[in-house]
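Methods: example folding runs. The two proteins below were folded one after another, and each record is reproduced exactly as written to the output file, sequence line first and structure-token line second.
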Amino acid sequence: MFGAGKKKLAIAGATAVAVLALSGCAGGDTDADTGDAGAGASDATLIVYTNSNSDGRGEWLQAQAEEAGFDIEIVGLGGADLTNRIIAEKNNPVGDVVFGLNNMFFEQLKAEDAIAAYEPSWSDEVPADAGDPADGVYWPLVQQAIVTVYDENTVTDAPSDTDDLATDSAYAGRYEVNPALGQATPQLVLASMLTRHLDEDGDLGVSDDGWELVEAYYANGSPVVEGTDLYARISRGEVDYGVLPSSGIAARDEEYGTTTGMIVPEYGVPYVTEQVSVINGSANEQRAQEFIDWLGSAEVQGAFAAEFNAMPVNEGAVAEADPEVVALLDELPRQEIDFGFVSEHLGDWVEKVTLEYIG
């Protein structure tokens, strides 16, 4: 199903996240005057924030949660926007649970005391270092690689290094680039590039080479077309390359008849591990904890993996994942990224890129 292709450097990523409107966002049916607002009623509506509700995931979760007896309202936003929203609301929380964000964003929420520690019932079924081993504030659900992809049926000149996509004029306009830095994947792409060019004496801790690469990447790429899938553009010959989370490859190969090749560097590709946590100050804290116990369980994560070609972190759910997905992630080396360092600098990096390179 997956063509390995030339495995070199992956530096970019773009998958648009569907946004669901927030309506009726009262934080549950609890009485703030009772002194027990943190417990929450068993029939309270849980406001679930996520950036992982696209491609039918939100609808699937809504249906499964209802069957399990949970009344939830899903609010979907891009990763950075969602993180900023939760931080802005921390003194008067609206949401009860947040999931789908990666370590980078959860580190920001943790630093702002916007999420609360809770050890879920399945904590011993996931690797301790996959979430927040220091404090147990957030816990891992799903992991996937972010890879630069192309169709082996049409591309015969994939570069030996994905930096060439940005710097070699032969590839100008042939790769898709997502300038929406309010989303999780484009921010991770930026972090993946810049963490390879750190320089304590450089601008914002990055060398000139790093900033020149980023500038070229945005200048020479073909911007995402809103509402148009990367593989639709590849099939029409509009672009040849783009970035996609690994979980989306199989479905697109089936839909578009492509044979996906990947460009993977020796040092690895960025991985995202989607996490979950209770929002600090939730009016339905106990019910939110019960929801997390359910969501991260081997049963639910196994069903999710089977439905969406995902790779669960819960070891009890791995058997339900597609063997080819398991093999793919075993094969792809993981890029080492210091998410704590990135979270401290990302805001400044995004601001510079937005003002100077995207406009």
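Second run, written to the same file directly after the first:
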Amino acid sequence: MKILITGAGGFVGQFLANELLQSPSNRLVLTDIVDVARPKCSLHSENAIIIKADLLTESSKVVRHDLDAVFILHGIMSSGAEANFDQGFQVNFDATRNLLDCIRKAKPRIRVIYASSIAVYGRPFADKITEDVFPTPEGSYGCAKLMCETLINEYTRRGYVDGFVVRLPGITVRPGQPAQAASSFLSGIIREPLARKRCLVPTTDRSKSFWICSPHILVKNLIHLLSLPNHALPIHKRALNLPGSLVSIQQMRNALARVGGDDKLNYIDEAENTGFDELVQSWPCNFDVSLALKLGLYPAESFEKAVEDYLQHSENNGST
């Protein structure tokens, strides 16, 4: 398959590209507004073409007539989108619409997998959130994501693309530097102590729980969607809540201690009166993902396994 990945400079794009390039039959077009590193651990990295492009004005540079599928992963994260309204909507919505219009003209009906977010949901939360719960985002990031979901639904209904939308949980443990997201500490609480760096957790309430998934399971589920039949979902309802697991801050601390040693807990600082407790009330966490599991997507692994996966990834890439 020839597959375009947008936002390929991000950690999800890099993980996905690396996995797809394990197969000699895959050819990738990797694009981002920044320079994209060639995946290090893949068997067939020579099968990737790297194109630096601003999708707001240059989507035509990366959309080819011989594409078989597109993963739309680009975007500005939650805190960044909230801080800069205009830039957030230009990147998260306008650039996506431009890309979709190029796709439908150059190669209509190809598989398009769009990475949305559980940020499309807002209060009051249902006891169990399914795809039938009406989304009411409480931030600019979730709003732009929901607008793009609607485009995917409409373009699929009209036969312009063959789209699926996946609403991502918090993805942890993320490698690299902290992201522009209020939830970035969910990776920092593991990543920084394992590197013997300090991490600030913006609350002293260790009972707070979050809906999360590991990069490993996320990538497996993204690839699974390449082969999902078009009729798996109604033609005008293309969204899936991806599998995740509910994990508290205390459980994260416990996993860090078991995998990295009790001494790593000394690198965690806890802050009071940061406003975080109020913010976290707008984050949904009670999901019913029976639809995704019915369609063959992989269930989330334990958080401790996610930490072990991160440690192995770091060791393989020489970052610990």
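Comment on the second run: The CA atoms of residues 21 and 44 lie 5 Å apart.
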